[in-house]
Structures are given as structure tokens and as C-alpha cells.
Amino acid sequence: MNSFSLKEEEIKDLSAYSQLPERLRVKCEQVVDKGVDCDVFGVRDRFSAIKQILHGRSLGRVIDLGCCSGFFSLSMLDSGMATNATMYDMNDSSLAFGEKIAKALDLEDNADFEKEKITLDFVQKLQPVDTVICLNLLHHAGVLFDVDIVQSIGWGEYARKWMLALKKKANVLILGVGLKGKKPVNWDVAQFDRALEFFKIAESAGWKMVYDANVWDIRRYGVTKANGKRTHGIRFNARIDFLRRQIQQKFHLKDSGEKLNKYHLFIMEL
């Protein structure tokens, strides 16, 4: 590992998605504990699930859409899960931080960061690889990009087109979707049912689901027990949990899983 140092001012304005891969995090834990390391989005929980579910499987060439600072791709490269990665994002600071991490881990020859606005048209024009990662992007369609398309056909149909496009680009898809009250927009599906509905969208596009879990469930119950809990588990218990959270939000009660509960991880293959 190359020399690496980190100052608090370097990370104070970065997204909580800009986590450090494990080797660097241990080295800089006193600094990152005051910054992005709060991990309010469950970034490390997600990677723990990805690593466990895809253990022993080579992910080969990776494309990372909306990569932030490339935590997932760089962690995969550093652990030997992937051979090379091309990572796309729009934020200059995040990309620069990712390049610094790649240099510290001696991954510069295997990691390429590109500034790019991701749209359905961009995805359709991508060259095929082995694995696509897209963990914080699709639920922003209709707000940050492809506004006209989502308004015209609805987010559900837009997501299906996205999944069909990705089917032509990779054999493995690691996808995260924020299933919030106001996002995705223009999708007339109750918040409680959105994980299952997206599950159906993915399968209708030809993807086989390997794993799906709410990020809060991963942290709360562990990787294995979280699998399918919101889609094919005991949905009555999940509904009670959902209603409890709605009450907590209404009365502004503290809930440690409030943010994590809004995100769902899907791992798929063809």
C-alpha cells in the first residue's frame, strides 16, 4: 500500500457514500470517524452482503454507475473480487477522492474514474462488461436526470427499460434502490410494496434474483436472515415494522434505522 494521509477538511463535504475500503479505513479511523465514517447509508453493510453472497465468484470487468468515490468497486478490486473497474459520477470532489484512494491502494492501473451524467441513453450505449454496479442512482431518475421520460411513461416502466438495457451489458447486476416516500417519483405504488414491485420489474426484464434485502434488515438481522424479508418473507411482520416507522417519523421519534430502512439491495444474474 502506498503512503496515504487524510485530513478532516478533505472529507467534511463528501457524501457518506465516500467510505474508505477496509485497509485504508483501519489506518485512518480516527479521522474518518469524524466524517463520512458515520455510514448513515449502510455502505459497509451493503458491501458485507455483496461480499458474502458473491464469495468465490470473479466479477471480472466492472462498470460502476453513480460511483461517488468508488467504495464498492475499489473494495472489490482490493479484495480480488474484480479485475478492473470503470467508475462514473458527476461530482468532482468525489471523483478526486476516489482517485486518491485508488493511488493509495496501488490500484491506479485497474481503476478508471470518469465524469459523466448517467442517463438511460448513456446506459444503452455502454460497452458490455462482466458486472454492473448501480447502488445510488436509479431512484433519482425523474428528478436529477431523464425527467421528461419518467414524466411520460412513469418510473416503473422507465426502470424496466433500464433493466432491459443493463441485461445487454453484463451477466451480474448489483443494484441499490431508494424506496422512499417521495422517490422514486411518478410511481403509483405504496411505499410498503415498492421492494416487491421492483423485484417483479427486474424479473420481468429477464433477471434472476440472487439476493434482495432492505439495508436496515441487513444491519439488524444479518446478511442471511435479511434476504427476501421485504419481498417474500412474513410480510405481515414487515408491514407492522413499516407502520411503526411511520409513527416514529410523524411524532419525530428517534430511529437509528430511519435512513437505512429506505434503501434496498438487489443482486441479480442472467
Q: What is the strand content? A: 15-25%
How would a textbook summarize the main sheet? 7 strands, mixed
- The amount of helix comes to 40-55%
Number of domains: 1
Q: Please name the fourth-level CATH homologous superfamily.
A: Vaccinia Virus protein VP39
The count of β-strands is 7
Distance between the termini: 36 Å
- CATH architecture assignment: 3-Layer(aba) Sandwich
What is the N-to-C succession of helices and strands?
HHHHEHEHEHEHHEHEHHHE
Please tally the helical runs, counting DSSP H or I stretches of 4 or more residues. Answer: 13
What top-tier CATH class fits best? Alpha Beta
Estimated structural class: alpha/beta
As for the CATH topology, it is Rossmann fold
**Average pLDDT level:** 88
Rg over C-alpha atoms, rounded to the nearest angstrom: 18 Å
What best-fitting shape do the alpha-carbon axes yield? globular
Can you list the strand order of the major beta sheet? 3-2-1-4-5-7-6
Low-pLDDT windows of residues: none
GO molecular function, one term: methyltransferase activity
Keywords: Methyltransferase, Transferase
Pfam family, one: Methyltransf_31
Domain Methyltransferase: 60-141
